[in-house]
Specification:
The structure holds two protein chains of two kinds. By secondary structure, chain A is an alpha+beta fold. Chain A contains four helices and six strands, in the order ααββββαββα. Chain A starts with 25 loop residues before the first helix and ends with a helix. Among the domains of chain B are: 75 residues, no CATH class; 154 residues, no CATH class; 45 residues. Chain B contains 16 helices and 20 strands. Classes of the chains: A alpha+beta, B alpha+beta. At the A-B interface, strand 3 of A face strand 18 and helix 16 of B.
């Protein structure tokens, strides 16, 4: 017999009690290494500029001081931001949270995902991590980008989501 | 008008050359000036008279344009299969397009004056994922266009099988009169934008204007009239007013060109608009493709009691995302509500998108805090302190910026709101005017809830609903409401048996 029970908003599954999956433990180190490379490159440029242009110490000291402060923040920041990122795979969707000051939680239903992509830079491969990108309609650069996943986990997720996309298309 | 081919490939009418002339000219105007560099270099190297140079230049340009258009026509072939249109084009870079009927979101038809006389039209296929005018069939007969449209609509399940001609007048939803053309012209922002861009140009000719004014003053003095500074200001104001009036007249003329005899019809699930003075534009869109319905009203539109309504389809992919919009340039709020009832029936359309309708829920007043703080107070304090040594006590006048920003933020907060039922949600926003955006929950692509530290303290959140046509943000609502709406949206997406596109 046809049934059409009323749905109470508070009875719908929420995201408050979710068990968030953390990113790969190597991700923090990977971020720091990348930032150290960039900071060193900028330091070398500033130092070379000082010696070649014979700039006064005061002129180069200010950028170097700013660089030192920025470098400290950049190197400490992964310890603050990475633990606050996480994802949960549910039966019907994937939920991702991120942000320290501005915290956001994004949910993408599997039946809205157009395609899935995994990618890794040489530095990612060194730390055995990868990025998972999920694309929905109307987006361009990847509507949900989960950095810092273990390489194997990213591949497992990609296969799992593709299966889910397939089953949702069959059910439609 | 088409040449049959044993292999099934057809060539369009030779009058398609006109279409290619237009397309190539537009491409040159847009981004291919550099390709004319060798030609311009030749002109500079040529030692003859200037007139001869221009004549040779003009003749050369016409020859190149005509040759390129004839070649484009010659290499343009199309083939209609049971489920797709194949197009082969390109002289040097060969390209084959395979446009699946199911991917076609809308079919647009253009008919310029010459084509109208010959009974020809240009078909444009609006597809998800393509950019530019790639899916065009130029200079085909109206009968062929109609039969192809029937075939495409039949294939994509739109049920639009009742039509045999391109325009019917039986079930018109809206017809625009010449009064409406004037309204469209008056509310077109492009006239003001043109005026703003023309500012530097006016500045350049100001010396000439000044000279003219001096001459007028001298002539007036000759007649015994003595003009002082206030008269000069009046003349300047008069000149600006004349320029504005000219721009408005151009704008109204443009409205006549684009929307003359505009008629909006609904045939089963296909919304169609036809209009245009010389070139007739016919746009059609399947109702199922609508992602968001927008109603906007600027200051001038508010004075005229009219709105602009747009139906947004899924944006095409690629780096340059193109918005696909079905435009209804001028409607009253009542008519807009009637239209949305027809467009969203039977599943929705009961809510009013009129921004002045009562039941909109306001967002939290805390919404104003960040605007006043970061756009008003902080910049004003920094500017006051920084300029205090130069301006002294007068630097305090900069603080007047704060109440001005506070007033604008208050207006923005008063206009921000939302309204929903079981199937759809409407967001209202605006500063001087109003904009309302309506969407069906089941068509959402993804949902994001964001909270700043301040919002967390006040149990508030901002909800962003990502649609295939762009995102809609509802700021500073109760966190519990935001999560309930998000969860309900995910539920509606999951249980909906209908396609989102």
């Amino acid at each position: 017999m046809f049934q059409n029970p009323e749905i109470a908003l508070h009875e719908l599954p929420g995201t408050d009690q979710l068990r968030w999956q953390n990113l790969h433990p190597n991700y923090k180190r990977r971020l720091r290494v990348q930032r150290i490379i960039v900071i060193l490159a900028i330091s070398v440029i500033v130092s070379v500029a000082k010696f070649t242009l014979d700039a006064p110490t005061l002129v180069t000291a200010l950028p170097l001081a700013l660089l030192a402060i920025t470098a400290t923040v950049l190197l400490v920041w992964p310890a603050v931001s990475v633990p606050r990122r996480g994802y949960v795979m549910r039966d019907k969707d994937i939920v991702f949270r991120s942000g320290v000051f501005w915290r956001s939680v994004t949910a993408i239903p599997f039946n809205r995902i157009q395609h899935v992509e995994t990618s890794s830079t040489p530095l990612d491969r060194k730390f055995k991590i990868a990025t998972l990108k999920l694309f929905t309609a109307g987006g361009t650069k990847g509507d949900l980008k989960i950095d810092g996943l273990g390489k194997d986990i990213a591949e497992q997720l990609r296969v799992f989501i593709l299966k889910k996309i397939g089953s949702s298309i069959e059910n439609t | 008008m088409k040449t049959p081919d044993p292999s099934g490939w057809h060539r369009t009418s030779p009058f398609a050359i006109l279409f290619f002339i237009g397309r190539i000219s537009r491409n040159i105007a847009k981004n291919a000036w550099q390709s004319l560099a060798p030609f311009i270099a030749f002109l500079f190297a040529y030692q003859g008279e200037l007139v001869n140079k221009l004549l040779i230049g003009g003749a050369g340009f016409v020859i190149i344009l005509t040759t390129a258009s004839i070649l484009s026509y010659w290499f343009f072939r199309y083939r209609i299969l049971t489920d797709s249109v194949l197009i082969r084009q390109g002289v040097i870079n060969k390209k084959q397009l395979d446009i699946k009927f199911e991917r076609i979101q809308g079919i647009n038809i253009e008919q310029n004056v010459i084509y109208r006389y010959l009974g020809l039209v240009t078909l444009n296929f609006d597809t998800a994922g393509s950019i530019g005018n790639e899916g065009n069939l130029p200079a085909v007969t109206q009968t062929f266009a109609d039969s192809l449209r029937l075939q495409i609509n039949g294939n994509s399940g739109t049920g639009d099988t009742s039509r045999t001609s391109s325009v019917t007048t039986s079930n018109a939803l809206l017809r625009l009169t010449w009064h409406d053309m004037i309204r469209i012209g008056l509310t077109d922002r492009r006239a003001l934008i043109l005026f703003a861009f023309a500012g530097p140009f006016f500045e350049r000719i100001s010396d000439d204007v000044e000279q003219i004014i001096i001459e007028w003053v001298e002539i007036a003095a000759g007649f015994g009239l003595h003009l002082d500074a206030s008269n000069a200001v009046s003349i300047a104001v008069l000149i600006v007013m004349v320029i504005v009036i000219i721009l408005v007249v151009i704008s109204i003329a443009a409205a006549f060109l684009r929307f003359y005899n505009f008629e909006l019809t609904l045939d089963h699930n296909t919304l169609r608009s036809v209009g245009g003075l010389f070139t007739r534009h016919e746009h059609s869109m399947n109702l199922g493709k609508i992602q968001t319905l927008r109603l906007q009203q600027g200051i001038v539109q508010a004075l005229l009691g009219r709105h602009r309504m747009t139906a947004h389809q899924a944006m095409s992919g690629g780096r340059q995302r193109t918005k696909k919009v079905f435009d209804i340039p001028v409607v009253t709020a009542e008519l807009a509500d009637q239209l949305r009832k027809r467009l969203l029936a039977p599943e929705s359309g009961n809510l009013s998108q009129d921004p002045k309708s009562a039941p909109f829920v306001s967002v939290s007043p805390y919404y104003m805090r960040s605007g006043i703080l970061f756009l008003g107070l902080l910049p004003a304090l920094i500017a006051t302190i920084a300029l205090a040594p130069q301006l002294g006590i007068y630097s305090l006048l900069i603080l007047l910026w704060v109440p001005a920003v506070a007033l604008l933020t208050f207006r923005k907060w008063r206009r921000a709101g939302y309204l929903h039922d079981d199937n759809e949600i409407i967001r209202r926003s605006g500063l001087f005017g109003y904009r309302t955006v309506g969407l069906l929950f089941r068509k959402a692509q993804r949902v994001t809830i964001t909270q700043s530290r301040y919002q967390r303290r006040k149990s508030l959140a901002s909800l962003r609903i990502h649609m295939a046509s762009g995102s809609v943000r509802i700021p500073y609502i109760d966190h519990t409401v935001a999560t309930q709406l998000r969860n309900y949206m995910l539920y509606k997406i999951e249980v909906s048996q209908q396609a989102w596109h």
